[in-house]
């Protein structure tokens, strides 16, 4: 075929104009089909030429046309070789279009597709790695989308590499690629799970959603992989992109159902729909129940419920629904109520969203009416709603109906019955029937209403009413002769088979109550028997049989006539039934014992049908899923397990390391610097020790480091292991922590083993420390130096255990480097060669400003100060405290939180800040007026005050509607600071620059126990909002901060001396504040 | 997944379909299809057409259709169906919400989301879908990010591109994709820095025959148009934030600040976006700005009926009510209508039986009315129910709930932005039963 087209093409000379001409003629020619085909080929030929041209614009044009062909569903596969050549194009748009093409056709043209693979590989290779993360990511995307089994190993390798990429975007794409590879070759599962496990530890919010998706796809049963990441996922959730949120929430719902015990009281699992629950009732019961059987919710369970709550406010309906189903399935029943408001909000959305949400509400409203009762009116039907929405709304209204609201509902239903949408009107009639059975008070009213509908002009309405009335009457075997008579009359007019059949059945059932009418009906129907619908014929037979049994005198002949007609009917069901009835009721010699019981058989009391919601049994599907919508199990549906009887071990979720890593995130920029510093100090330490211990060690370590680049991913432990003995490696690690605070002066070499023991006992650290200390005993002297650092570390560990508020940051600083996963990169921390350090140190010195950055406060004292006493404030009380957060109103302001309490028994209205009386230069950002404060209510507002780095008082007036009270805030000097994160080295450098006039110092005398580092730390941060500077010596404590207004540094040093004295030094440009702070700190530190 | 040829995949394609016209399905061939993961045969769509034919009305095509091997989830928008083919369990709202986001993006890029627009821009559509979805999982759906990756088509740009040979496709990863504020692109620069907010409230109501309110609530949105340079950090406060009963936020809003202080604090996306949508609960009394007097009657056994409606202002807070339109879906038996409006103009479409009366402004001195005769099909029974009236109106400079923006502050940037807030009240689903 192709040679043919080539020939053709040569013939035509390739000219565009002639081609067109021939095209036109060929279609007219008798060989029309062939002509069309070849013209198609020719067109592609022209595309091929364009693709081979040198001009990007021509190529681009060709690619656009090809993509257009794909989009229209035309086959463009024969262009594959020509297109693939352009995969390495420099033009990004061409490249992308080629990718699009490749992904579409690679499966069909496997051999040719392989040609392109090397291009992607090149982009992904470690060495030649494309510096553009977008290119790397899209190369991975395309590579993994090429469904060619041969390249599975290449894909695997690429995914592995990408999962360790520095860019979270590339890692996200790696997570996507996992699923693709898995679908291509499920045999890779184990390897892929390993990667998933690794990526699950990733802290980037970008990756979280995608990797959970991969988890759900590849190994949803490996719930054990989630344990360690559970808390992290819960905490990240709010910041994950919306699509990821949906996936994570669904996964966590399943997780929670396997890991926690049920928060629901026993026995109300699924069956509480029988009773009418009002919210308050339920809550009370819940409470009562709690008293009986103490149930305490697992804090992790609570964490999930709490962290998903804000997502109910999401603009994305899928997220809201996901949270709603989470609350429905795992939250205590008393708390699930909050989801109804959000779900009702979704009803304003487009019809598809409405459809799904209404379905879910329908299922919910069956079980817990109370939840949606307040929103009853939101489910009222509008004439403009699509029918499917109308019917769902009706369903919900029925579920919500109770004695209290039924009268309003029935009035509403009356409007619906008249609707022009007959399908909807019919559904309304069904609904009325259901209400009549569920609420006995109104069953008569409903019945009368339905009877009225019997005279409706519309046949569908009448038919539906008949069917419903039949069901109702069957349920209440009371005298309803009148209604039956009325319906008998209808038989003349109504033609809908179901309705006719229903009437006949009803008359037959009640033939003894309407003795005069029944035979007459039989007479009429006998006349029309042959023209009736099969359904009606069967009921005529039934009616005949019943009458024959009860009133054979009048109807014997009629029945026999009908039976004869039935005998020759076309439908075998009817012939069967005729034969059966004849045998049963007409006594003859052959009929056995059965005919005696004929009456009992035909006129037995029949159980009433149950009118139920079609949504009744849907609740065994997880809400919000496709399976729930379809009410069948969809492919890949994951069952929601029942609550376990006993909760599995909750400690599996304890991950100290991860927890801390998570806590680190708010610290912001400070994080980035610390690893760097670690690198220097650690390697330097290595260098120190190797130099001093033995010459043989020094060589390899430093040399191997020398040619390594910064981004080398070798493990530091390994490196030092190469360079020296085993203990060296351990020491390297231990030293790392000690030295984390920066390059310290390593003077004190004489602290001994008791200390190292304490490190063993107090720190829950890895064994490497113990190892190092025990090893070091046997080692050379220099080892002890490193040990003394271990001590510092150990002490701080102790600190951490001693005092709670301090825990976070201190331990963070310690542990951060322990934990490779905590760094944003999955790569292990690289080691630097000593020679490089020297360079970097130089760099570091030059870039001072970057080192000083505001960090989070170490400690926030809960101390509040009285702003306005309730006596002087006529019942309005106000307290303030310093949250030590950077002020949101301006970066020169100190943020102050004011808590207002209303102690009166009346509302206090319009609380606002009146006139301000501020000293020169000071500024204040007031809170927004509070409209009203309920009695006994309290509200917290925040204000920002720029104190201009002075302890002057800010006076202003706190006004209510009626009064004004003058109040003032005087800041303690310690609150005029913001903590700063800096390294020890920088601290010293800065300190050196702030000597002489800028230095104030004093000597403190106190009992030795007051000089425990933990105590000092606690005292200092309590008084002043300073940051802790990691210290290499355990007798020197350093703190750094900057003033809020001017940003000048404030360096505090506490140096312990012999005996029970210590030197307190403060270096700052702002000498006034410095000396005030010194005055405040001194008594605090000296007193026991 | 036994029995399924193509294993696990989520959204294996979004198929865009031609419009449904009254005469039948036009443009049966798929306009555009895009496959992620293995290719799905077009025949799967036949199930969709089947469902479409079964449903009398496009509105009634079920959004979720189950076929032997696939599930079809579709949305209907702007006379187009967007269909996605699903193979495994997935939250249906996830797909629906995504398809709407796709439609929004097309709207954003091409100015309209129509068949013609998609056909004309098939390559961009393809490129967009490529960026928005990877292996069935949404990748980039923020319009700010997409616009950095693929520049929207403009005449100017296509001219420039053809001269310089540059392309429409960005070659670096959008900054937003990596930062924790993915909705904003970096390096935004404007000469005039402006921030406009539109507070739009819609009244949803059902008024019954006697004129009493069956159901009413206010649904509001604040749409923002922000053209500010750099990284502004805005905070918007209300005079009466407690009015807002239920709020949903754009992801940029800091939830904690709202919880504690009832202040909307956010770093905005660049351009137009919906900041919040809210509901003012039905517990509060909702002021209904208009009333309708109506008398519609069909005589028994006669081929005509009377139609008479009058509209008047009520609780309109002293503002004029503008752009009033009344739409009535008349019963099928109505053949024609002969009416005389005292104001505005009316049309009656005998095919769809829709009566539209474009009223315009209400002047209280002379209330607009529409009177006349209705011709019915002779012999047919008279309609059971009177049609309900759908009313549209607009009131400028008023938020009917009383919501007021207190102030807008900007931090993080030095310049002084130009700020503006506009209030509009409209009728939402406002229906009068007769």
UniProtKB/TrEMBL annotation, chain A:
This is Adaptor related protein complex 3 subunit beta 1. The gene is AP3B1. It comes from Ovis aries. The lineage of its organism: Eukaryota, Metazoa, Chordata, Craniata, Vertebrata.
UniProtKB/TrEMBL annotation, chain B:
It comes from the Eukaryota. This is Adaptor related protein complex 3 subunit mu 1. It comes from Ovis aries (Sheep).
């Amino acid at each position: 075929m192709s040679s043919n087209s080539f020939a053709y093409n040569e013939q035509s000379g390739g000219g565009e104009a002639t081609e067109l001409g021939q095209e036109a003629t060929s279609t007219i020619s008798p060989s029309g089909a062939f002509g069309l085909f070849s013209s198609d080929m020719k067109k592609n030929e022209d595309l091929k030429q364009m693709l081979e041209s040198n001009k990007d614009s021509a190529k681009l044009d060709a690619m656009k046309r090809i993509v257009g062909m794909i989009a229209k569903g035309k086959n463009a596969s024969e262009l594959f070789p020509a297109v693939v050549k352009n995969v390495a194009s420099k033009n990004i748009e061409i490249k992308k279009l080629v990718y699009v093409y490749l992904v579409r056709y690679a499966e069909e043209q496997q051999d040719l597709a392989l040609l392109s693979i090397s291009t992607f590989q090149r982009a992904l290779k470690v060495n030649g790695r494309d510096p553009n993360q977008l290119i790397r990511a899209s190369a991975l995307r395309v590579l993994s989308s090429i469904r060619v089994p041969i390249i599975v190993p290449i894909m695997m390798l690429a995914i592995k590499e990408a999962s360790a990429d520095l860019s979270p975007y590339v890692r996200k794409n790696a997570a996507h690629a996992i699923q693709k590879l898995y679908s291509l070759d499920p045999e890779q599962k184990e390897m892929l799970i390993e990667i998933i496990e690794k990526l699950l530890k990733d802290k980037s919010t970008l990756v979280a959603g995608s990797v959970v998706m991969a988890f759900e796809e590849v190994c949803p049963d490996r719930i054990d992989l989630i344990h360690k990441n559970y808390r992290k996922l819960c905490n990240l959730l709010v910041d994950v992109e919306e699509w990821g949120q949906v996936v994570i929430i669904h996964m966590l719902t399943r997780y929670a159902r396997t890991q926690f015990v049920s928060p629901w009281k026993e026995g109300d699992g699924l069956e509480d729909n029988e009773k009418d629950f009002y919210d308050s009732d339920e809550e009370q019961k819940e409470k009562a129940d709690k008293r009986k059987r103490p149930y305490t919710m697992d804090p992790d369970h609570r964490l999930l419920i709490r962290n998903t709550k804000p997502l109910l406010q999401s603009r994305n309906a899928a997220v809201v629904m996901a949270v709603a189903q989470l609350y429905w399935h795992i939250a205590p029943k008393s708390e699930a109520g909050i989801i109804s408001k959000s779900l009702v909000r979704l009803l304003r959305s487009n019809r598809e969203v409405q459809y799904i949400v209404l379905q879910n509400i329908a299922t919910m409203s069956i079980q817990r009416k109370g939840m949606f009762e307040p929103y009853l009116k939101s489910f009222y039907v509008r004439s403009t709603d699509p029918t499917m929405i109308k019917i769902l709304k009706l369903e919900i209204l029925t579920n919500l109906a109770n004695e209290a609201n039924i009268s309003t509902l029935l009035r509403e239903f009356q409007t619906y019955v008249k609707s022009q949408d007959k399908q909807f009107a019919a559904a309304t009639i069904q609904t009325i029937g259901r209400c009549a059975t569920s609420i006995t008070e109104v069953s008569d009213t409903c019945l009368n209403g339905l009877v009225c509908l019997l005279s409706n002009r519309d046949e569908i309405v009448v038919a539906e009413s008949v069917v419903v009335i039949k069901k109702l009457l069957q349920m209440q075997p009371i005298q309803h002769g009148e209604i039956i008579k009325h319906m008998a009359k209808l038989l003349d007019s109504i033609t809908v088979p179901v309705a006719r059949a229903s009437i006949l059945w009803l008359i037959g059932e009640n033939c003894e109550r309407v003795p005069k009418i029944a035979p007459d009906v039989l007479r009429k129907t006998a006349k029309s028997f042959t023209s009736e619908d099969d359904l009606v014929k069967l009921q005529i037979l039934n009616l005949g049989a019943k009458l024959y049994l009860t009133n054979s005198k009048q109807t014997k002949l009629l029945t026999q006539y009908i039976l004869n007609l039935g005998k020759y009917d076309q439908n075998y069901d009817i012939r069967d039934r005729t034969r059966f009835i004849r045998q049963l009721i007409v006594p003859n010699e052959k009929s056995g014992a059965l005919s005696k019981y004929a009456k009992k058989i035909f006129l037995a009391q029949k159980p009433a049908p149950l009118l139920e919601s079609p949504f009744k049994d849907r609740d065994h599907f997880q809400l919000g899923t496709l399976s729930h919508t379809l009410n069948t199990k969809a492919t890949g549906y994951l069952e929601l397990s029942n609550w376990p009887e006993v909760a599995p071990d909750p400690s599996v979720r304890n991950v100290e390391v991860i927890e801390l890593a998570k806590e680190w995130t708010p610290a912001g920029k400070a994080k980035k610097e610390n690893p760097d510093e670690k690198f220097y100090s650690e390697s330097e330490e290595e260098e120190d020790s190797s130099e001093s211990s033995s010459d043989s060690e020094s060589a390899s370590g430093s040399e191997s480091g020398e040619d390594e680049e910064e981004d080398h991913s070798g493990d530091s432990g390994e490196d030092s292991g190469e360079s020296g003995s085993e203990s060296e490696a351990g020491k390297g690690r231990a030293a790392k922590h000690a030295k984390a605070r920066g390059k310290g002066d390593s003077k004190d070499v004489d602290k001994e083993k008791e200390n190292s023991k304490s490190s063993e006992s107090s720190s829950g650290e890895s064994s490497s420390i113990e190892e190092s200390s025990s090893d070091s005993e046997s080692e050379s002297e220099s080892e002890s130096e490193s040990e003394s650092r271990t001590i510092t570390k150990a002490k701080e560990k102790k600190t951490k255990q001693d005092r709670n508020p301090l825990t976070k940051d201190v331990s963070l600083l310690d542990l951060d480097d322990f934990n490779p996963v905590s760094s944003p990169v999955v790569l292990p921390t690289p080691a630097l060669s000593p020679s490089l350090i020297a360079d970097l140190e130089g760099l570091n010195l030059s870039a001072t400003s970057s080192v000083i950055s505001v960090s989070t406060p170490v400690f926030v004292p809960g101390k509040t100060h009285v702003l306005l006493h309730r006596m002087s404030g006529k019942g309005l009380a106000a307290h303030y405290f310093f949250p030590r957060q950077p002020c949101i109103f301006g970066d020169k302001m100190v943020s102050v939180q004011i808590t207002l309490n209303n102690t009166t028994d009346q509302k206090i209205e319009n609380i606002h800040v009146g006139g301000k009386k501020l000293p020169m230069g000071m500024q204040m950002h007031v809170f927004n007026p509070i409209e009203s404060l309920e009695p006994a209510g309290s509200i917290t507002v925040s204000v920002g005050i720029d104190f201009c780095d002075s302890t002057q008082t800010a006076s202003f007036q706190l006004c209510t509607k009626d009064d004004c009270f003058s109040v003032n805030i005087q800041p303690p000097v310690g609150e005029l600071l913001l903590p700063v994160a800096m390294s020890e080295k920088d601290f010293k450098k800065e300190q050196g620059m702030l000597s002489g006039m800028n230095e104030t110092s004093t000597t403190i005398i106190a009992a030795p126990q007051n000089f425990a580092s933990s105590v000092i730390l606690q005292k200092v941060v309590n008084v002043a909002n300073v940051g802790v500077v990691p210290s290499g010596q355990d007798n020197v404590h350093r703190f750094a901060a900057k003033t809020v207004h001017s940003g000048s540094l404030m360096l505090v040093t506490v140096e312990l001396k012999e005996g029970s004295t210590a030197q307190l030094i403060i270096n700052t440009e702002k000498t006034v504040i410095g000396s005030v702070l010194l005055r405040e700190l001194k008594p605090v530190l000296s007193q026991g | 997944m036994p029995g399924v040829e193509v294993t696990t995949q989520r959204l294996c394609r979004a198929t865009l379909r031609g419009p449904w016209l009254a005469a039948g399905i036009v443009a049966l061939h798929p306009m555009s299809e895009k496959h992620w993961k293995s290719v799905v045969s077009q025949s799967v769509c036949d199930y969709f057409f089947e469902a479409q034919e079964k449903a009398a009305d496009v509105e009634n095509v079920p959004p979720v259709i189950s076929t032997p091997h696939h599930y079809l989830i579709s949305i209907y928008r702007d006379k187009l169906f967007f269909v996605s083919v699903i193979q495994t369990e997935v939250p249906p709202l996830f797909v629906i919400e995504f398809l709407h986001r796709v439609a929004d993006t097309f709207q954003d890029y091409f100015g309209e989301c129509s068949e013609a627009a998609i056909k004309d821009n098939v390559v961009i559509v393809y490129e967009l879908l490529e960026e928005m979805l990877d292996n069935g999982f949404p990748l980039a759906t923020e319009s700010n990010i997409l616009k950095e990756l693929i520049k929207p088509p403009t005449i100017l740009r296509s001219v420039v591109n053809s001269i310089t040979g540059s392309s429409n496709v960005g070659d670096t990863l959008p900054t937003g994709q990596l930062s924790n504020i993915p909705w904003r692109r970096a390096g935004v620069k404007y000469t005039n820095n402006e921030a406009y907010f539109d507070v739009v409230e819609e009244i949803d109501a059902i008024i019954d025959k006697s004129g009493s309110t069956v159901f009413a609530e206010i649904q509001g949105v604040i749409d923002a148009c922000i053209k500010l340079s750099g990284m502004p950090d805005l905070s918007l406060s209300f005079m009466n934030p407690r009015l807002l009963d239920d709020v949903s936020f754009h992801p940029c809003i800091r939830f904690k600040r709202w919880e504690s202080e009832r202040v909307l604090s956010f770093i905005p996306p660049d351009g137009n976006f919906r900041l919040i949508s809210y509901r003012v609960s039905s517990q509060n009394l909702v002021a209904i700005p208009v009333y309708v007097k109506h008398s519609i009657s069909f005589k028994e056994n006669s081929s005509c009926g009377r139609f008479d409606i009058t509209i008047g202002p009520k609780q309109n807070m002293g503002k004029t009510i503008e752009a009033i339109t009344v739409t009535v879906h008349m019963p099928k038996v109505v053949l024609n209508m002969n009416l005389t409006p005292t104001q505005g103009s009316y049309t009656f479409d005998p095919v769809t039986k829709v009566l539209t009366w474009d009223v315009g402004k209400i002047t209280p001195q002379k209330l607009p009315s529409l009177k006349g005769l209705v011709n019915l099909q002779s012999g047919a029974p008279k309609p059971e129910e009177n049609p309900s009236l759908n009313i549209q109106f607009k009131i400028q400079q008023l938020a009917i709930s009383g919501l007021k923006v207190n102030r807008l502050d900007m931090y993080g940037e030095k310049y002084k932005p130009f700020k503006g807030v506009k209030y509009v009240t409209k009728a939402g689903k406002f229906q009068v039963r007769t």
